[in-house]
From TrEMBL:
It comes from the Bacteria. NCBIfam families: GRXB, PRK10387.1. Transmembrane segments: none annotated. GO terms for cellular component: cytosol. Residues 1-77 form the GST N-terminal domain. SUPFAM superfamilies: GST C-terminal domain-like (SSF47616), Thioredoxin-like (SSF52833). This is Glutaredoxin 2. CDD domains: GST_C_GRX2, GST_N_GRX2.
Length: 214
């Protein structure tokens, strides 16, 4: 199977995770961020991730991909219960895009290999969240808010092996956000949150972004 992705994209990380957690091979193909033609040809719209199945057909939507791959062999690994508090925490921390998107725009991701691809991303995302320079200038206040929220997350993490003690959809939703945050310099994570993030990176075979830290 092939998975078409952007490396920075948390939805793409969700789809990548299930291959690592199940130790399944997949060919990762990074799309340029301004390449609209390829995804539109595949699924009729510009989005990622996109899975190309073994039969050549295409599947969009990260969680559809996750559940399809998890159940292919009849031995799913995402069998644990969900905790609504994890979804609540994620919903309450949407402001982190003000920390993440400006840093993504300056990072050495393959999807930004051309100037036009980087400019495309910057234009689209600034239209959505506002001026990147202003958000970068406000990083200290945003990091203070984030660290307080990470303290709230800490007691929700049952184990470094899985947020609720057994692998579940909550891990697929939570780890991509924590992985994205590894690009932000100066953020102190509670010890158990950091242990969970590091272990999930290992289990899913998805490196953190510490080498791009800004």
């Amino acid at each position: 199977m092939k998975l078409f992705i952007y490396d920075h994209c948390p939805f793409c990380v969700k789809a990548r995770m299930i291959f690592g957690l199940k130790n399944l091979p997949v060919r990762l193909i990074t799309l340029l961020n301004d390449d609209e033609t390829t995804p539109i040809t595949m699924i009729g719209k510009k989005m990622a991730p996109i899975l190309q199945k073994d039969d050549g057909t295409y599947m969009p939507e990260s969680m559809d991909i996750v559940h399809y791959v998890d159940r292919l062999d009849g031995k799913p690994v995402l069998t644990g219960p969900s905790n609504p508090a994890i979804a609540d925490w994620l919903n309450q921390t949407g402001y982190i895009n003000k920390l993440l998107l400006p840093r993504f725009a300056h990072a050495d991701f393959e999807e930004f290999a051309t100037d036009s691809a980087r400019q495309y991303f910057t234009h689209k995302k600034q239209a959505a969240i506002g001026d990147f320079a202003a958000h970068l200038a406000n990083s200290a206040d945003l990091i203070d808010q984030l660290e307080a929220d990470l303290q709230r997350l800490s007691p929700l993490i049952v184990s470094a092996e899985a947020v609720n003690g057994e692998l579940s959809d909550d891990d697929i939703h939570l780890f991509p956000t924590l992985r994205s945050l590894s690009i932000v310099a100066g953020v102190t994570l509670p010890a158990n949150v950091e242990a969970y993030r590091n272990r999930m990176a290992e289990r899913s075979d998805i490196p953190l972004l510490l080498d791009m830290e800004q």
